[in-house]
Amino acid sequence: MNSKVTNRIALSLIILCAAVMAGILATLLGYILVKGVSSISWHFLTTSSSPFLAGGGIKDQLWNSFYVLIITMLLTVPIGVSGGIYLAEYAKPGRLTSFIRTCVEVLASLPSIVVGMFGMLVFVNYFGFKFSVFSGALALTVFNLPVIVRVTEDGFNSLSRHQKEGGLALGLTHWHTIKTILLPAAFPSILTGIILSAGRVFGESAALLFTAGLSTPDLDFGNWNPAAPNSPLNLFRSAETLSVHIWAVNTGGIMPDVQTIANGSAAVLVICVLLFNLFARALGKVINQKLSGR
Amino acid sequence: MIQMEKNIVSFSNNTVTKDLPVQINAEDVNIYYGDNHAVKHVNLPIHEKSITALIGPSGCGKSTFIRTINRMNDLIPAARCEGTISYKDVNILNPKVDVVQLRKEIGMVFQQPNPFPKSISENIQLPLRFAGVRNKKTLKEVTEDCLQQVGLWDEVKDRLDRSATSLSGGQQQRLCIARALALKPDVILLDEPTSALDPVSSAKIEELLLQLKNDYTIVIVTHNMQQAARIADYTAFFYQGELIEFGKTRTLFTNPEKKSTSDYISGRFG
Q1: What is the mean pLDDT of residues A168-176?
Q2: Nearest beta carbon to residue A293 from set B130, B131, B162
Q3: Residue A233 lies in a domain
Q4: How confident is the model over B106-114, as a mean pLDDT?
Q5: Alpha-carbon distance A91 to nearest alpha carbon in chain B (angstroms)
Q6: Has residue A51 been placed in a domain?
Q7: Least CB–CB distance from B103: residue in A170, A176, A294
Q8: Domain contains B270
Q9: Domain interval for residue B151
Q10: Are A185 and B130 in contact (CB < 8 Å)?
Q11: B151 vs B175: CA distance, rounded Å
Q12: Which of A129, A159, A207, B3 lies most in the core, judged by the most C-beta atoms within 10 Å?
């Protein structure tokens, strides 16, 4: 067999693999969207769910998903970015550093149901946060933190060392170099990573089953006082998110239109995650263009 | 050897006639990377307001040495220095030296132009602001002044808010020099500043350095012997971590004392 033939076979195999992947994605997306889009309506998005009757919506679940996501990001981004900066810039190579890095990797590969169980034992029971937005966000923090650390460290490591040398040689301190030169330069890749991880957090269900709960109090969208028990902003109320809702409806829903609700919710979830991804790409592109000069 | 004869013709004709005072003096400097003895017992005076070129084949320790003068080697965890480099009666190598202050007085320009991915004016103003200059008018004046000094002002005055990375390689390198000048250093170290540039941009930088030496002490590492011959007042030849020979450029090139110096400058190795 000559090298030309080998080359052709390798190329065909690679194209085949790529095609299989694209095919799976297209089929999945197509299936979910075709079945689900028809059940999405303004009414569906803006009505509370009903436990028994047909015609319930996903207003509260949708809100909860975004709210949990925002709280999770508020917790993970500052800690994760700082941790990533520490690993990339300050940590001296050695046992402690490689131990920390191993911990981050193990944490990133923990099954989310395990994180959920941990969250229930620690946040829900031990700290007494109950099934709540806050417990859920903390569990998702455990799950998301290593991703942000990784994204930040990679973002910093992908910068050329010339930038850092340039800053230091101009009499800037290490911290000032990080703050004014390295962090802005790494910002596009960190931001893209954060948005992509947001998609993952948004779609997470297993970690939330035992932490954010399977129910939502009757939310009053006119009451924005975070201390009120039925306020959408209350951190210590239970909060069923969209993906948990899909699971709950599918496993134990007794309303007559279970299938429609599940399909519609799945489609909304997928559309949101898709939008996160597209948004991350577009934003990364815009920022990159801005940085590399018009 | 014929090539050599041609080079000799192009010596700089504004070399210093008599030695100016020594500004930085290296005495018995040894630098190690782990077990690797990269620079061995180097004694080298650097005269103020002149250009000192460090030449030698790759891996001879010249870059390691120049990076020690403003302590950039601190970034490399395995690097270790011994000996004395005195500057203003202080030993630069003393761990207690405030490197941030030191680097404001001894600036550095690198082989790869490294403007920050920010606007042209921000590249100059960022270090200035960190050094405590807040007055907007002063910042603007210094920006213009520095860009004038490197001959970049007319090329970029209409697009100061554009990204510095949109400039050509040669312009970027001149911007990096301008940025170093903004802090009013005493000494500027240049580590092969033209090796990533085209000949025209290189020539501009050389011209610029000849101008700048009236106000600044310049130390330049170069691979290019003709460049050393063209612009340097003093040349130091490094080989295998040792300083083989140091002297006035013309003397070193036309009448080297050591055989390895004459072998290197006549192109027998390196």
Answers
A1: 92
A2: B162
A3: yes
A4: 93
A5: 11
A6: no
A7: A170
A8: no
A9: 2-265
A10: no
A11: 9
A12: A207
Which residues in chain B touch residue A168, judged by CB atoms under 8 angstroms apart?
72, 75, 103
Count how many domains chain A has.
Answer: 1
Asked whether residue B79 is domain-assigned, the answer is yes
**Domain boundaries, position A89:** 58-241+276-291
SS3 A128: coil
Q: Which of B101, B112, B183 shows the shortest C-beta gap to A170?
A: B183
Is B254 part of any domain? yes
| B108: β partners | B189
Note the pTM of the prediction, 2 decimals: 0.82
Count of structural domains within chain B: 1
In-domain check, residue A23: no
Type of residue found at A196 = L
Smallest CA–CA distance, residue B63 to chain A, in Å, is: 14
Residue A43: Cβ-neighbour burial (10 angstroms; 0-12, 13-18, 19+): exposed
Residue B179 reports pLDDT greater than 90: yes
| B110–A169 C-beta distance less than 8 A | yes
CATH of the domain at B146: 3.40.50.300
- The H or E element that residue B80 is part of is strand B79-87
Tens of pLDDT along B198-243?
Answer: 888 889 899 999 999 999 999 999 988 889 999 999 999 999 999 9
Does residue B195 lie within any of the structural domains?
yes
Q: Between β-strands B36-47 and B22-33, what pairing exists: parallel, antiparallel or unpaired?
A: antiparallel
Residue of A92, A158, A170 to mutate when probing chain B, most B C-beta within 10 A: A170
Residue A263 lies in a domain: no
Dist CA A198 CA A275 (whole Å):
11
**Contact with chain B for residue A169, Cβ under 8 A:** yes
Domain CATH for A83: 1.10.3720.10
* Res. B1: pLDDT tops 60: no
Give the contacts of B256 (CB within 8 A, at least 6 positions apart).
B237, B245, B262, B265
- The chain B residue lying nearest A180, using CA atoms, is B126
